[in-house]
Amino acid sequence: MTITALPLRDPGGEDWRVPGDAPVAPAGRLPDGTAPGTVSRFGDDMWDLSPLARREHEPGRRVNWATFPPALRGSFKRAGWALITLPTPEALLERAATSRVEHPSTGTIAAVTEQWRRYATWLATRGITSLAEVDAACHEEWAAHLARRPAANRTRSRALSAVSVLWGYAPHLPPGDRIPMPPWEAQGVREYLPAEDGRNENATAPVHPAVMSPLLVWALRFTEDFAPDILAALAEQQRLRSRIAASHSAGAAARLAALLGEHARNGTPLPGETIKGRRSAACSYLAGLTGASLTQAHNAIRRARLPVADAAPLGITVTGTVHGRPWISHISYHQAQALALRLAAACLVVVAYLSGQRPAEVLHLRTGCCPAPEDDGSGTVRYRVHGQHFKGVRDADGTPAPDGAARRWTVIPPVHTAIGILEQLTTTGHLFPLRPAWLERRIQAAPAASARPAGDPGKPAPDRPGDHRQGGQRPHRRVHQLGQRSRQ
User: Fold this and answer.
1) How many domains is the chain partitioned into structurally?
2) Is the whole-model pTM more than 0.85?
């Protein structure tokens, strides 16, 4: 190893140091097209793992070394550098039930280093300030400590495996950073796990049927009944926005003056909007109506001093109904985009729940993925979704294949309808943003928002497909998993 800026001397005094300004990953470890300048440096307290992600849908992950005990931070940081930079040691590849991957994914790196942080914190509470002080008795006590904690055996197993990873990289670390082989490597992890009741726990908390049922019902109402109104409102809003001028126009000034004069003569308030509880005139709406610039509209409105309404209704006819009444009295100029976003979230619920696809497969769907249905000549119509699946798909070197593998799903008509709506909403080649910050917020807001639709506050939700009080219904996780991924 070369010695340059910010050298870190190991506890054993060996001349093993990584330059502080060295990237935490070599160029060969980075996906094609990754800018070297985006890679974190060894001396950073925070390592951003997102440049190493090989699949677009993977959430951004980081390692915060500042949360490690100061006395052990250097040792674990060097181990983290080895975990990212070096190929997986043979001792780890030969373990039972181990996936033979030359380089771990960013998710694995983040998970292992988080377990290391907990392990380091436990070591520090025992007064251990160097990994060289860890011995077989320490391993036994760590396993016993995990067994006493209220956690699933899956969680305990991951904590033990993380220590095994630290041991596996020992030959590549300075002597002061090496730990002996954990006893569970020879005797098996099961020997160090307490007995459980045999239930097959799922790591993701389920969505209860009492939530999933109305969520799905109202998602379908949005895609089947309300979508035409929302899409028409969005198109009208975009048309008005496109008419807003970049600079002053005499013709637009005349049209704006005529419009304001008409409101003054009739005593009608100007179209408005309410932002943070404060009502104001819908400046951009009026600018779009008259082809004026925003400055023109703002100045004219200020001079007119006219009363202001609480909405700026768009010129569309609402056709969707709930219990025989319009589901919403009107869609205002500033409401169109919010409703379009809610419609996209409803489409997500429909596609993710009814297609049988995993979260990554849903997020990678592209426009044109669900063409017109096929008729095999027997009168049976089949809707097909074409996409990629990723679980277990790897390149020749064992790393996860960035593009997955092609796959086709047979779906029901509501999924085809939802995809068609998304193709009208998206502005990219994908149906959904691959790293969507809005997913969890919109999914969480959907049950409350849809349980009492705008314009019909007193009506109950429509009949649900199945009473959630009945036993035997399976909780559902797929939509929740999508929200979880967006938060990470």
Assistant:
1) 2
2) no
